[in-house]
Amino acid sequence: MMLVVKAGAQTPALTFADSLYAVGNSAEAIKTLEEVSPKSPVVYSKLARYQSATGNLDAALTNYEILLNQEPGRVLTAMDYAATLIKKGRLESADSLYSLLSQSYPKNANFVFQQGVIRELQKDSSAIDYFKQVIHLDNTHREALYKLAKNELQRKQYNMAVFYSQMGLEHYPTNASLLSILAQTYMRQNRYHLAIPTFEEIIAQGQGNEFVHSRLGFAYYNEGFFEKAIENYKSALEFEDRNSDSHYNLGKLYALTGDLERSETHLLMAILIKKQPVDAEYLSLGLTYKLKKDHKRALEYLNKALEENPGNERALYEKAVAADNYFKDLQTKIDHYRAYLNKFEGKGNDDMIYLAKTRLSDLKKEQHLSK
């Protein structure tokens, strides 16, 4: 039934619709506004916004168009209309509208920003030019600074990524998105001592997650703070307990700190979780057993590493060392070092080749003397 009311009597209907919408009863709120007749500009505006928010985009666009035809100077309504056009996928229409708004209000940075967003959605690289125009109009525009910083990080232009991030953080010092770009940039530059306090600030803002803690763990590891690294990798696992990289890094860290039992546990977990080649994990397990002087188990896992990746030089060298420690037969020891040198001499790691040659020479002398 159509609700016919005088213009001045529309306020109760609007208030009732607002109350319904506020408690989540959007369908009844929309129905209430649809039944109002005749509709004032305020009714059309609320009705269109409610319809857009609930996904009834065609109806929302129709009501925005009616309202703008009646009152073409409503800038906020035009902005809502453009946003709904974007949601509908009518990007060119939205761009035309923002272009008109920019011409009317040339100092409004947000209209230019939205044109950049539209080009970003269209996979048009000129979006970056629009974001640069934005900060010429407003050098505190957080979203534009974030997009510029992120773009420079992706392009490996790290100094510019730092520049835009810090430019934004001058005005929004606790913004997690800008802090994240800055921290990631420092990581790419191997400036771990700068990445650490930046990631810590993100956590202090309550924005810690698996990515933040794992990156922070890696930074602490590279700075030699193994206990702090362990603490953060454990925190990363609280967010995602089946992350093979976190288990793998914990396994390596526990080996470095002498906790070989935990090292074994996490390295085995990494292998169980990971579906792609796991030669690095098997190698680390082999090295853990080497530290435990369990040379038989070391050989077992080094062989597994080589099954996964026959070109893993470190695994083949460590296999020769493990065989040297495990087997008593001199020829068997010699054969393992020869296998390594036959494959990697002249192209492998100089230090490992030197050690293998030196040990092979000693074994040959020992074999000669034993005859």
TrEMBL record:
Write out the ranges of the repeats annotated as TPR: 210-243, 279-312
Q: Which organism is it from?
A: Antarcticibacterium arcticum
Q: Matching PANTHER family, A to Z? A: CELL DIVISION CYCLE 16,23,27, CELL DIVISION CYCLE PROTEIN 27 HOMOLOG
Record Pfam families: TPR_11, TPR_7, TPR_8
InterPro entries on file: TPR-like_helical_dom_sf (IPR011990), TPR_rpt (IPR019734)
Name by which UniProt lists this protein: Tetratricopeptide repeat protein
UniProt KW keywords: TPR repeat
List the Gene3D superfamilies: Tetratricopeptide repeat domain
